[in-house]
Write a structure and sequence with these properties.
The complex is a heterodimer of chains A (97) and B (217). Chain A has 97 residues and is an all-alpha fold. Chain A has three helices and no strands. Classes of the chains: A mainly alpha (97), B mainly alpha (217). At the A-B interface, helix 1, helix 2 and helix 3 of A face helix 1, helix 3 and helix 6 of B.
Chain lengths: 97, 217
């Protein structure tokens, strides 16, 4: 039979605590004027939280390499979508030069 | 393996382990398409926010920040109970599994209740895009774009939550009648993957919609 990885409850509680702490942090940081860093800080925290959920709650850390590759492929496709779209929209003003 | 074939083992799989891997992979492939589904909306948001940053900041200020924050905490807690439910299924603890599934559904329902309260507030304040939309000059027009995206993105997310509650009802039924066992728990596991994904979407929606330029006023 297959052997499954049963994650200790403690790991889930620790991840939960970090996620809650990050939520508190992201709200607090939003009230300080950091210029463009506000958005970057919010996104860095969101990406960090999402990574923890994917690796631990969604078991990718304990899963097969194939699953990991599929998860990464979603980021690749998203990057293509964002890069090509923003490559257009952000450079439109340059045509006026 | 065929000598001791499990009742839940489909004929085209060698064993339950292979069946479980295939189910997990299939759910992840679906979630990749979901990433791009929501990705299109996030890209739209990015384009308009770059074009009209001041209107987006002004419109974002009108959202009920405490409700968004509480809802973030509610969803993260529901992800914890979901992860623990999958663990209870893995270890064959039926009682824990039932309790944790009910807890997850209760938290999901609480999220939708708070969201409904927010939509009601926004309707009363005339922030629903359309002919009745009211917003202070000079941002009236572009604030409407923000609220269009807000309702579309949170609405699509809420639809996913409602579907998630439906899936959890089925899991509750399967667990109740004993179909879910230590050897066969992948329905609960892949339902959990879906639930966590919906949580992740909110993890990005919350700062992008509720927290932009909070320091400005």
């Amino acid at each position: 039979m297959h052997t499954e990885h049963v994650v200790p409850k403690r790991v889930y509680y620790v991840i939960f605590a970090i996620l809650m702490l990050c939520t508190y942090l992201t709200v607090q940081i939003a009230f300080f004027d950091l210029g463009p860093l506000n958005t970057i800080a919010a996104l860095v925290i969101a990406v960090f939280k999402a990574t923890l959920v994917v690796l631990f709650f969604m078991h990718v850390r304990y899963g097969t390499r194939l699953t990991g590759a599929v998860v990464l492929s979603s980021l690749l496709f998203l990057a293509i979508l964002l890069a090509l779209t923003m490559g257009d929209y952000l450079t439109r003003s340059l045509r006026a030069l | 393996m065929s000598r001791s074939a499990h009742a839940a083992l489909a004929h085209h799989f060698d064993d339950l382990g292979q069946q479980r891997e295939a189910a997990t992979l299939g759910m992840w492939l679906f979630l990749v398409t979901e990433v791009l589904f929501f990705g299109g909306l996030f890209t739209t948001y990015l384009v308009y926010r770059n074009w009209y940053p001041d209107a987006f900041v002004a419109a974002s200020h009108e959202l009920v920040i405490w409700a968004g924050t509480v809802n973030t905490a509610v969803l993260i807690t529901s992800s914890l109970t979901m992860a623990l439910a999958v663990r209870a299924a893995q270890t064959g603890d039926r009682r824990q599994l039932l309790i944790l599934l009910v807890a997850t559904m209760a938290l999901g329902a609480a999220f939708l209740g708070i969201k409904a309260f927010e939509y009601y507030t926004e309707a009363v304040e005339n922030h629903v895009p359309g002919s009745g939309f009211v917003f202070d000059a000079p941002y009236a027009q572009h604030a409407q774009l923000f609220f269009s995206l807000y309702f579309l993105m949170t609405g699509l997310h809420a639809v996913h939550m409602i579907i998630g509650l439906g899936i959890m009802s089925v899991m509750l039924w399967l667990s109740w009648r004993g179909t879910i066992t230590k050897d066969y728990y992948n329905p609960v596991e892949i339902a959990g993957l879906y639930w966590h994904f919906v949580d992740i979407v909110w993890i990005f929606l919350f700062p992008l919609l509720y927290l932009i330029g909070r320091h400005a006023h």
